[in-house]
Write the structure tokens for this entry.
Amino acid sequence: MNRRTFLQSTGLATGSLLLPIWGRSVSAFGETAPLPAADKKKLADIALNAATKKGATYADVRIGRYLNQFIITRENRVENIVNTESYGAGVRVIADGGWGFFATDQLTPESIASAAEQAVAIAKANGKLQEMPVELAPQKGVGEVSWRTPIQKNAFEVPVGEKVKLLLEVNAAALKAGANFVNSNLFQVNEQKYFASTDGSYIDQDVHRIWPAMGATVIDPKTGKFQTRRGLGIPCGRGYEYLDGKPEGKLAGVCTRYTTSYDMVEDATNAAKQAREKIAAKSVEAGQYDLVLDPSHLWLTIHESVGHPLELDRVLGYEANFAGTSFATLDKWKTGTFKYGSPQVHLVADKLQPGSLGAVGYDDEGVPCKKWDLVKDGILVNYQKIRDQAHIVGQQESDGCCYSQGWSDVQFQRMPNVSLQPGNDPKLTTAEMIKGVERGIYIVGDGSFSIDQQRYNFQFGGQLFYEIKNGEIVGMLRDVAYQANTQDFWNSCVAVCGENDYALGGSFFDGKGQPEQTSAVSHGSSTARFNKINVINTARKI
């Protein structure tokens, strides 16, 4: 199956989501447990020793085994089941001031030593062209350590038949509730990563992620018009226990949030009903509204208008040829007064957040992960950076956000989890926030979006839109999208709900780089209010 067919069958070919299937296809997985760390350490030492003997002043090696499973269904049938496994090692070195990288899928002492030697040769060739030598922020070795996603059920140990049964039950529930078309999919990833470096680190990590996705479409037979509502489950760094389906209650009386567990059958039923509601809903009248944005929607706005523009490599112009640059340039940060948002806006980067897609103990260059401020009290205070970038902004340590999608790809700066912190009033709930809105729209779920190459001017849609009048939800709307620029939007934030309202969303396959790589990243928030935002009507006029 080619990529186009895969995207069409999943119904997820929107935005920047990429759905790569890479690695060796296998009919079924054998033993899924990670290989012994002691065996990987022996191979790593061979690579490190070979690199230093050839003149490397620094070397690291990543030995990785990557398992992926994609189960794709539609209505009453299974469209495809794809298992992939990829296993090999990549060696990265500094020699004569330049970077070098080489990878091999032959994990023998001879092959891994040869890969290290090739990496050194490449580094020396690159060093001749370097205007300035590579400068790494200091990093003490952490010795022999391990980290594992704290899962309760390994999704790869759950029988495929059980997963297929669930997805077909999901489809049946949507059809019973009135859907004309429905698809449901289950994506699972297990990254078994071993990192070693000449700094003295030997790090063994076992990372798990899961994404249950679905969408229900309803067609009006009289007009031929149709509406789709995608699932409200989140991609997350959890095990199969996320699909246990324990109810979490209604939000603002109109939708269910699935933060710690996901009832996929219930969501499919609601999706079909709400898609039918969307057909009959009133088309929005363009104008200015106060927006109440649910975390299931706001995560994407955070991703595009905060996460990407505060990547230091993008700020420095390294991404200009492909993905663009950033409006949040160094001169703005250096003033210490640039108002990225209102005083209610506190945005953090966090690689340790439990249940998030980006949660690991150590990044892909052996740096312990952490949490740090990006925007504090509305002021831009920091960026996201890795070891060879820190000195550019006068800092002495990496933020621990280096990542590679696989052993055969060189690691580089990737977005950590970037989230809006809850407000200071723990009693402020979504319902209470809506009570204070005279003319507004409550938006649930992510939809289409557009943003310029500097991550400044943008437009966002959603899944569900509810009209607010005089503090009450009075009905559903459709054809809604809002427009703003990043600075005006975040400065219009007047309130953020408390910690009890906090929830994650995220992207399972976020693309970046040349050659392009994908990574998984979460973005959390509580429901937030933004005043006087321009809303347009997206209905096609024929």
About this structure: The longest strand covers residues 77-95. Residues 49 and 475 are 67 Å apart (CA to CA). The chain has ten helices and 28 strands. The chain has two domains: 3-280, 283-537.
